[in-house]
Amino acid sequence: xxxxxxxxxxxxxxxxxxxxxxxxxxxxxxxxxxxxxxxxxxxxxxxxxxxxxxxxxxxxxxxxxxxxxxxxxxxxxxxxxxxxxxxxxxxxxxxxxxxxxxxxxxxxxxxxxxxxxxxxxxxx
Length: 124
Fold this sequence. Notes:
The chain has 2 domains: 3-87, Winged helix-like DNA-binding domain superfamily/Winged helix DNA-binding domain (Arc Repressor Mutant, subunit A), CATH 1.10.10.10; 90-124. It contains 5 helices and 3 strands; from the N terminus they run H-H-E-H-H-E-E-H.
């Protein structure tokens, strides 16, 4: 296998693994609620835990999933850890969806052209 093909295959596997982590991170309602809160600005663990009525260790586990998925970033100042949305957090998912949408749209466009080229049943 040429080096370029091996490199592309490795990149595809890494891309797929990253997408899996992103979708896994978004699969939980509590994590999506945390993302909604963080879209308004940075927040501490306790600020994120309060509306969820969830124990801090559980919130930390959810935040670890979001961080490993590349959706949030954290910073520790003293004893307080603050989380914020990563700048291009959902760009990979947006690209993945856009690729599929373009593919399906071209198939629908081809179907529409085909149907338009067919004579109406009333005319036959």
